[in-house]
Design a protein that fits this description.
By secondary structure, the protein is of the alpha+beta class. It is 20% helix and 37% strand. The protein has a single domain, classed as RNA polymerase II/Efflux pump adaptor protein, barrel-sandwich hybrid domain (OB fold (Dihydrolipoamide Acetyltransferase, E2P), Beta Barrel). The strands form two sheets. Strands 1-2-3-9-8-5 form a six-stranded antiparallel sheet. A three-stranded antiparallel sheet has the order 4-6-7. The termini are close together. The model has no long low-confidence stretch (mean pLDDT 94).
Length: 126
């Protein structure tokens, strides 16, 4: 079982969301998702200035096993994309909660069904 930071919230699509600081939240994928994907070799992130919608696809993660959509857990404007992850996609696997974050968004609306760490762990265990 992976250890999910308690201060984050999680989507059923396996993204994590930090608490917004000055209205801006950070989004990444969980270690469960990174482990399931295998070695990530390509990351396509939403562009800075674009609008993302909670529950809708906003990018892609390609691994040696498959291609998966990246879903936004919130709606809002993208304020930053992690260029380090684009340049070195393996960060998604090696540090999904630290250097492997994906993008930051100025939140206008939260998605439904965001889970606590304990709820997410129960969801992925079942």
């Amino acid at each position: 079982m992976s250890i999910n930071p308690e201060q984050l919230r999680y989507s059923k699509e396996h993204e994590w969301l930090s608490a917004p600081a000055e209205g801006v939240a950070t989004v990444g994928i969980t270690s469960h998702a990174a482990d399931s994907l295998g070695d990530v070799v390509f990351v396509q992130l939403p562009e800075v200035g674009s609008t993302v919608t909670a529950g809708e696809s906003c990018g892609e993660l390609e691994s040696t096993k498959s291609v998966s959509d990246l879903y936004s857990p919130v709606s809002g404007e993208v304020t930053e994309a992690n260029q380090d992850v684009v340049d070195d996609p393996s960060l998604v696997n090696s540090a999904p909660f630290e250097g492997g974050w994906l993008f930051k968004v100025k939140v206008t609306e939260e998605g439904a069904d965001l889970l606590s760490a304990a709820e997410y762990e129960a969801f992925t265990a079942g």
